[in-house]
Write a structure and sequence with these properties.
- Its cofactor is [4Fe-4S] cluster.
- With about 650 residues, the protein is of the alpha/beta class.
- It has 18 helices and 17 strands.
- A 12-stranded mixed sheet has the order 7-8-9-6-5-4-3-2-1-10-11-12. A 5-stranded antiparallel sheet has the order 14-15-13-16-17.
- Bound molecules: S-adenosylmethionine and iron/sulfur cluster.
Length: about 650
């Protein structure tokens, strides 16, 4: 095995890189997808060209354009964002207790069987790389405390043969220096190291542990390896808290004078239990102003399309500074990130609480049990036999059946990604698991995906697509060719005209969502004024209406005779108070065999009626109107949205 430590001090960058390429291929994980299988051989023999296509020879450029594959639809959301960057939390454990991240006593840890095993992480990485993910970052908790972190990185590193270009680590640096060399040999290309202070005593206050010297050792070792040509991209992450370490912003900038590193100042973000407080957050603008006083020539550096960081540079300095502005300037428009939590949930947005369990789908191929090394080896053997044509067509294809299901679920989750996350004023009131923690009470879609669906009984799709269109015919609708061709038909009316419950026993279980809305219009400004001042005799009208809407959604089958009971996984009801109205919007999600439009309509109408009830003493002329479904997704008919 070649080792970077054997490199002569002045080894060329190219040489170091070629050594890294060699070691990258040392371990070969099982290759799962059909698409990957088809292209793997070609990729093995022809390393991917990562250079800018504009600098290539015309013939090579033409070839690379011909080879270019369209980006996976599974990883493309409805806003055309292509997700080629995957962050995986590989442990919940940590050897520090940073004040902005964790309570002093730590966080309750999940039972180990709930966490992803190493083969499971490798399998999921493999699936994502097969669909076009080119960058994987391992994070946590503290990833370096995972016992088998190096073998894990070796196996993920081997995915470079299948399109992975960057393997990165976010770490507190405490024990990195001990594992760094083997990690670089495994294919590590970038490190984000957390360091919030340059003062050892302050370090102990902010992390509640000793360890400043160890972090220093890790930084020094990275820089030393880079001088030898390792080419590891090093960034220092510094969370800035007012009154805690804000006086260190300038010393950190000074550090970039001689060191070729990037210091990234992170706006302090709220997570469950971190006692976030707006006053403690130092904004991007404030930090920039502070730096400009000392360095008025500070220059903006052109950021790359998907950068979360806004990068700046003091002319003449070796390094750069950046700002992660999640709180004041979101970068949602170009977000290309997906996250997998330690327990195997896919999170499409750091600040969203919708999650789906990929672990459960993966484990279906192992009778629901965690996939350990032995099970993984058996699966690999099946896959290898299949590749060599040794298996009969009836032989199970190892992971392949799961991979198809995984991709469906991943695709649906990605398509549900919102345009942007909430901002200050909302984020701090939202439930969101701490960066490192599993929060079993968070309102998630977790546990509602395929694992649990097989026991569901049937539910009914109340309105057919075309019926829906007629119901809301005052609003122009998108039409499909199919709609034009088929006469409208009520699904819950039998041949003889009797009402009946439609059997949906043969329908597939899919993730479904529906949003309904309506408006309560007041006849004067009295009621909205009292709601705003929270002076209604009956109390908080909007709060009560929200709860009423949620309760009603869950009771829908008790109220609407032909509705099947559905295991609703999430209901959200939003009420927006205007000058003379309340706009109600209810969204219901489930994993089931039929849609949730009726649940959404019931939630919205009940919330509106509750507002009516709470205001009727002061306004007799209220009108509730415009009740309609505005969005429906999932199932065979796919996405439908009211124009
Ligand atoms: N333990 C590793 C580390 O500290 O780098 C990796 C996990 S840590 C959760 C990942 C990153 O999140 C770190 O850079 C940390 O500084 C940042 N972070 C944690 N809590 C934060 C908060 N409340 N606001 C902003 N950044 C935070
Ligand atoms: Fe641990 Fe990282 Fe959180 Fe600090 S920020 S407590 S090092 S996980």
């Amino acid at each position: 095995m070649l080792c970077l430590r054997q490199l002569p001090k002045r080894a060329s960058h190219a040489k170091a890189r070629s050594l890294l390429s060699y070691t990258f291929k040392a371990v070969e994980p099982v290759c799962l997808s059909t698409r990957r299988l088809a292209t793997a051989a070609a990729q093995q023999s022809k390393p991917r060209d990562t250079t800018d296509s504009s600098t290539q020879e015309p013939a090579a450029r033409r070839r690379s354009l011909q080879d270019a594959k369209p980006f996976s639809d599974f990883l493309t959301d409805t806003f055309h964002r292509q997700h080629d960057y995957l962050r995986i939390s590989v442990t919940e454990r940590c050897n520090l207790r940073c004040v902005y991240c964790m309570p002093e006593e730590g966080v309750p840890l999940s039972p180990s069987r709930e966490l992803l095993t190493t083969p499971e992480i490798v399998m999921l990485s493999s699936v994502f790389v097969s669909q076009g993910v080119t960058k994987i970052r391992l994070t946590g908790g503290e990833p370096t405390v995972r016992r088998d972190i190096v073998p894990l990185m070796q196996q993920i590193g081997a995915l470079r043969a299948h399109g992975l270009k960057e393997l990165c680590l976010t770490t507190n640096g405490i024990s990195l220096h001990r594992k760094l060399d083997s990690m670089v040999e495994a294919g590590l290309t970038g490190i984000n190291m957390s360091l919030d202070t340059l003062d050892p005593w302050q370090f102990q206050i902010m992390t509640r542990r000793k360890g400043f010297d160890a972090v220093q050792r890790s930084i020094d070792r990275v820089l030393e390896m880079n001088r030898a040509g390792a080419g590891i991209r090093l960034k220092i992450n510094c969370v800035v808290m007012r009154g805690v370490n804000d006086r260190e912003v300038l010393p950190f900038v000074d550090l970039t004078r001689d060191k070729d590193i990037e210091i990234r100042f992170i706006e302090y973000m709220p997570f469950d239990g971190n006692k976030w407080n707006k006053r403690k957050m130092l904004s991007y603008d404030e930090m920039l102003d502070m730096i400009l006083v000392k360095y008025p020539t500070l220059q903006k550096v052109q950021d790359h399309k998907n950068d979360t960081s806004k990068t700046w540079h003091v002319p003449g300095f070796a390094g750069r500074i950046g700002f992660i502005t999640s709180m004041t300037h979101n970068f949602c428009g170009t977000c290309n990130r997906l996250r997998i939590t330690g327990d195997g949930n896919l999170k499409v947005c750091l600040f969203g609480n919708a999650e789906v369990s990929l672990r459960d789908i993966l484990r279906q191929s192992n009778g629901g049990e965690p996939i350990d090394e032995a099970a993984y080896e058996a699966m690999k053997q099946i896959e290898m036999d299949r590749r060599q044509g040794l298996t009969s067509p009836d032989t199970p294809l190892g992971m392949a059946p799961n991979e198809a299901e995984l991709l469906d679920v991943i695709g649906m989750a990605v398509k549900r990604k919102k345009a942007k996350h909430a901002g200050i004023g909302e984020l701090e009131h939202m439930k969101n698991r701490p960066m490192i923690l599993i929060d079993p009470v968070a309102p998630t879609l977790h546990g509602a995906m395929p694992r649990r669906m097989h026991h569901l009984n049937s539910t009914q799709h109340f309105f057919s697509h075309s019926h829906q269109r007629r119901l809301f015919s005052s609003t122009p609708q998108r039409q499909s060719k199919d709609d034009d061709a088929k006469p409208p038909k009520l699904t819950h009316v039998s041949e003889t005209g009797a009402a009946h419950m439609v059997s949906i026993a043969s329908k597939a279980v899919t993730a479904r969502v529906a949003t309904a809305s309506c408006t309560v219009r007041f006849s004067s400004a009295v009621a909205p004024g009292l709601i705003r001042a929270n002076e209604l005799k009956k109390g908080d009208a909007l709060g009560v209406a929200r709860v009423a809407g949620i309760m009603a959604a869950k009771r829908t089958p008790d109220l609407i005779p032909l509705c099947h009971p559905i295991p609703v996984s999430r209901v959200s009801v939003d009420l927006a108070l205007g000058e003379a109205s309340v706009e109600v919007r209810a969204t219901v999600e489930c994993d089931g065999k039929t849609g949730v439009e009726m649940e959404a309509l019931t939630a919205a109408s009940t919330a509106a009626l509750t507002v009516y009830d709470m205001c009727k003493a002061v306004d007799k002329g209220m009108v509730v109107d415009g009740l309609r479904v505005v969005l429906k997704d999932g199932g065979k008919s796919g996405r439908w949205e009211m124009d």
